[in-house]
Amino acid sequence: MSFRRFVALVKSDLYRHAGQADLRTFLLYMLQSPGFKCAFWLRFVAWLRIQQSAVRLLHPAAGFVKQHLGNKYGISIPASTVIGPGLCIDHFGGIFVNGSCVIGKDCTVSQNVTLGRANRGRRRGAPVIGDRVYIGPGAKVVGAVRVGSDVAIGANAVVTEDVPDSAVVGGVPAKVLSYDGSAGYVNRTDYPTPLD
What we know:
- By secondary structure, this protein is of the alpha/beta class.
- It contains four helices and 15 strands.
- The chain has a six-stranded mixed β-sheet with strand order 3-6-9-12-14-15. A five-stranded parallel β-sheet has the order 1-4-7-10-13. A four-stranded parallel β-sheet has the order 2-5-8-11, with no helix packed on it.
- Helix 1 runs antiparallel to helix 3 (34-49) and helix 3 (34-49) runs antiparallel to helix 4 (59-73).
């Protein structure tokens, strides 16, 4: 990942949180928004990890800061997780994401969300989350489940089966309630997609 792409990813995350991506907003959200702060350090550690130059020496210190913030705010997302642009950690606390998960672009993760790996059975593996997905408070997505794009997962839903595009799911186990999608839950998705 180039430095240019790293900056573009941070800007897209900031835009999802704040609706703008300028330096003043960045500094303000680094001070006041636990969700954005954790997203920034997640991106920074992921960028440092793959560098070949001397800047890679910052990786252990950045990893320590990321871990400290994760412990403080209850956000456990490994830097190895594949996450598209526009990650919005809406409310912090109790968030766990397995490092094998894949999260698409412009996704919103609420508090007490688990994206976990199943170690046995028919759905052995980790979830793959599509683009523009809203994951409500307390929702759990467990196993090799494919969640389509433009999906809204309701509060406290437990998703153990694939979810089609534009579905709204809820319950334990989660069932499709409608096909109204995530419109209205996932906002500010019009930031230009970062270049590779």
